[in-house]
């Protein structure tokens, strides 16, 4: 009977704690799963949008390169203005390149169409109906656009034709979006559909290239899935056209990329991707491990409660001297347990710091990968344009040695730039943990080699005042701290609406055998109620998708514990070019020749 006095409360306690643990932990696990999936899908959608934009830019540049090549073709200059037939070139491009539907038109200097590859109509004064042609004839220049006419949404390139310095007319090349959608389907297992804004429907309905319409919207890709058309016809199409990040629909990830040229909304590039082709195995593994730990906790809880119950029951039956002796033993056990707990907590803190360093490095890696993509976009475009131009000129037999050498030089110079960029980022992520001697100016140069493109694109001006001297410390870790502080300043400055007021000031000098680095911005400063907390781990004012709250914490750890230095922050008000600004100022002080290891 006495056993029940302990057994029943133990069972009730076990049941209550188990129910609470399962309820709270399950809610947390599923909430975390949704957060991880959202981050995964957001990143995937962003990559798809970047690729579509890159393909559109590539097709636009390739169309321009083709047109420039034809404009310098001696056959067109000498004979083409009177009698030309580019149909054979269109067929060759369809068989040998991604240009499956290319249209050409030659227009004389008076605005008459001398040749159309898609029609036998000629010698009509199209300048009367085309305002863009009037401007071109008045002031000839190379022009490349994305526009919607009466046939389709197209890439249009117009290049003046000259002979002996005399303006003869214009050659115009027109290409389509269909090859882009076909390439995405074949290379990325995506199901694309190009939906033109309904304000263009009326001008397209008579002569539409694809003759495909969906709910008063013209569809620009011939190869669109009929099943997809039927499905979208049964849905609220606007809910797809207004997608901002992504949408999950029928076990598919739907990504919307608006097609905008010169601030005009032309249409939407929708793609559908099966969710089962997106790797989320690490999320499933996280769920399994979490539930496994929950099960282990419940088992351990049952054992602990059973031991406690048995101990209380046994204790009731023992004599006083045995109880005292057992109490003494329990006290010794408690001391041992306390020591073990202290050791475990020390070990946990060590592991936590290792994890924080890893998270900080991964966050920095994400920043650097974004910079790589931003800095590579222009040289890759140059390489693509040069290679495409040489290939086309070779195919039509007009490639000369000088043009070949100039194009190859462009490709080699761009490739060397990409190689140098790779070397800069490889050095940044070098695992070296040894101190080394380096110069202050060279360190600052490495910093801006890694981030300058991102800062330029956001209209952020960096004013530096650097004294050249040698420092002996951990170069890569100091590089990481400086990039983290500059990126934090950048994230605040993009919220400054006045582009002419986005400044970062960097001073690098020596004082009392210390290297002093001061980084100050014009973003308005840090609120006084949180400035004392910014070095705490996981404290951040950014959205969860933009910040982890460990960058400044790890920066403080690196400076104070690894380099025996100090890092301070304060809000400063200052004048620059007769204008007053307020911003956050971080000051790093590091021993220049610290021999401790």
Describe the overall structure.
By secondary structure, this protein is α+β, with helices and mostly antiparallel strands. The protein folds into 4 domains: 72-176, PAS domain (Beta-Lactamase), CATH 3.30.450; 179-277, Beta-Lactamase, CATH 3.30.450; 319-428, Orthogonal Bundle (Helix Hairpins), CATH 1.10.287.130; 430-591, Heat Shock Protein 90 (2-Layer Sandwich), CATH 3.30.565. 52% of the residues lie in helices and 22% in strands. It is built from 14 helices and 19 strands. The strands form 5 sheets. Strands 3-2-1-6-5-4 form a 6-stranded antiparallel beta sheet. A 5-stranded mixed beta sheet has the order 14-16-17-19-18. Strands 7-12-11-10 form a 4-stranded antiparallel beta sheet, covered by helices on one side. Helix 1 (2-71) runs antiparallel to helix 9 (281-317), helix 1 (2-71) runs parallel beside helix 10 and helix 13 packs antiparallel against helix 14. It is extended, with a radius of gyration of 34 Å. 25% of the residues are buried. The model is unreliable at 543-549 (pLDDT under 50).
């Amino acid at each position: 009977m006495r056993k029940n006095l302990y057994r029943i409360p133990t069972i009730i306690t076990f049941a209550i704690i188990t129910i609470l643990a399962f309820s709270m932990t399950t809610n947390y696990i599923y909430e975390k799963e949704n957060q991880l999936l959202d981050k995964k899908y957001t990143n995937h959608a962003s990559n798809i949008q970047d690729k579509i934009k890159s393909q559109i830019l590539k097709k636009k540049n390739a169309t321009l390169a083709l047109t420039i090549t034809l404009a310098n073709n001696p056959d067109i200059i000498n004979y083409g203005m009177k009698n030309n037939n580019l149909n054979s070139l269109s067929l060759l491009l369809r068989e040998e390149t991604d240009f499956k539907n290319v249209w050409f038109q030659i227009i004389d200097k008076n605005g008459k169409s001398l040749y159309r590859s898609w029609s036998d109509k000629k010698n009509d004064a199209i300048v009367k109906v085309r305002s863009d042609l009037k401007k071109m004839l008045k002031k000839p220049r190379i022009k490349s656009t994305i526009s919607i006419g009466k046939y389709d949404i197209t890439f249009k390139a117009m290049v003046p034709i000259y002979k002996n310095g005399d303006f003869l007319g214009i050659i115009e090349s027109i290409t389509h979006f269909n090859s882009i959608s076909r390439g995405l389907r074949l290379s990325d297992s995506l199901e694309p559909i190009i939906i033109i804004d309904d304000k263009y429907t009326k001008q397209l309905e008579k002569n539409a290239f694809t003759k495909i319409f969906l709910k008063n919207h013209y569809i620009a890709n011939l190869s669109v899935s009929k099943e997809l058309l039927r499905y979208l016809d049964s849905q609220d199409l606007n809910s797809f056209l207004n997608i901002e990040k992504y949408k999950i629909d029928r076990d598919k990830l739907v990504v919307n990329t608006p097609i905008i040229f010169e601030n005009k909304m032309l249409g939407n590039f929708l793609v559908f991707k099966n969710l089962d082709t997106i790797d989320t195995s690490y999320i499933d593994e996280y769920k399994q491990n979490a539930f496994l730990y929950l099960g282990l906790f419940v088992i351990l809880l049952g054992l602990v409660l059973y031991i406690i119950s048995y101990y209380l029951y046994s204790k009731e039956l023992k004599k006083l001297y045995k109880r005292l002796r057992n109490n003494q033993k329990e006290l010794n056990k408690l001391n041992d347990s306390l020591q073990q707990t202290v050791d475990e907590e020390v070990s946990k803190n060590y592991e936590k710091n290792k994890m924080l360093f890893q998270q900080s490095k991964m966050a920095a890696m994400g920043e650097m990968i974004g910079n790589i993509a931003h800095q590579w976009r222009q040289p890759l475009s140059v390489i693509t344009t040069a290679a495409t131009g040489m290939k086309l000129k070779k195919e039509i037999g007009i490639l000369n040695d000088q043009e070949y050498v100039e194009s190859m030089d462009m490709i080699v110079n761009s490739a060397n730039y990409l190689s140098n960029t790779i070397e800069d980022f490889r050095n940044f992520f070098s695992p070296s943990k040894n101190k080394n001697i380096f110069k202050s100016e060279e360190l600052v140069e490495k910093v801006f080699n890694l981030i300058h493109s991102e800062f330029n694109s956001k209209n952020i001006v960096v004013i530096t005042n650097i004294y050249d001297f040698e420092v002996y410390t951990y170069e890569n870790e100091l590089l990481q701290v400086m990039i983290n502080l500059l990126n934090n300043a950048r994230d605040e400055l993009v919220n400054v609406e006045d582009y002419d007021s986005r400044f970062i000031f960097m001073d690098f000098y020596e004082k009392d055998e210390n290297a002093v680095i001061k980084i100050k911005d014009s973003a308005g400063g840090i609120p006084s109620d949180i400035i004392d907390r910014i070095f705490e781990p996981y404290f951040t004012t950014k959205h969860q998708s933009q910040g982890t709250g460990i960058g400044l914490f790890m920066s403080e750890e690196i400076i104070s514990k690894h380099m025996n230095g100090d890092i301070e922050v304060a809000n400063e008000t200052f004048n620059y070019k007769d204008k007053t600004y307020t911003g956050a100022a971080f000051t790093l002080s590091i021993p220049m020749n610290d021999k401790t290891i």
